[in-house]
């Protein structure tokens, strides 16, 4: 079933290719990870600018006041949680045969997904990878319950879809230009996405081939970093509504949560879900190398 989830969701969630030879130098913002931004109560309304069938659901309703992390939770933050609690992520736990469950990894060289039993948040691309020197990168390969466990430890929770979207865009409708939240008016990248033609080559025009540290792209109007691109983010809502047209999988709604924002694997010619109004089903039982999260807190 986990293989089916990866194979079924992969085409909807990513674009693929081979790394570019060089990328430009990017100056990343310096801020204290874990800082939050207060969001006043209001009403979110995605409006009429709907680009995919699944976007007909969600993105409208009243939202109570809350605060939200300025950044996607980082490896450094997650390591502090694990160090304090000795928590073991789903990917690190044994399956019925006694082997680690592992996580889904996107192999850029082979342009395909695989479930790697050696992959987990410490080794997000498998045993040969490491998060050494990547403390400010978003933590990935965390299943939904792993993200939820961190949030509880921090005295917080995962955002609802509407809270996430309201923090991303406020009360304005989704932009009519599907590239507006990932590219500037002169077409310069303002989010970590995949440049180039899927599935052949990621040119790295935004400065990165793969994940980026948090805060390397401009903050949105609320002061939040990496709302578009870098990693998809878990929300607490169960996925419902029309299936994405590029997923061919029966019973796709079972055990699925809404993920938001797109990732560094979304390309202009395929996926194009680097938008506040985009939404996808994420298999809550599976960590993936392009899904992370941020947390929220209720206002007093």
Keywords:
single chain, 300 residues, alpha+beta, three-stranded antiparallel beta sheet, globular, disordered N terminus
Overview of the molecule:
The protein is built from four helices and 13 strands. It is an alpha+beta fold and 300 residues long. It has one domain: paralog of FGE (formylglycine-generating enzyme), CATH 3.90.1580.10. The strands form five sheets. The chain has a four-stranded mixed β-sheet with strand order 11-10-9-12. Strand 6 and strand 7 form a beta hairpin. The longest helix has 12 residues. The termini are far apart.
Average pLDDT figure: 89
User: Roughly how many Å is the radius of gyration?
Assistant: 18 Å
Distance between the termini: 42 Å
Derived structural class: alpha+beta
Q: Count every beta strand, where a strand is a DSSP E run of 2 or more residues.
A: 13
Q: From the 3D coordinates, which CATH architecture would you assign?
A: Alpha-Beta Complex
What is the name of the CATH topology?
Answer: paralog of FGE (formylglycine-generating enzyme)
Question: Main β-sheet: number of strands, strand sense, barrel status?
Answer: 4 strands, mixed
Query: Which regions have little confidence, pLDDT < 50, spanning 5+ residues?
Result: 1-22
State the helicity in percent bands: 10-25%
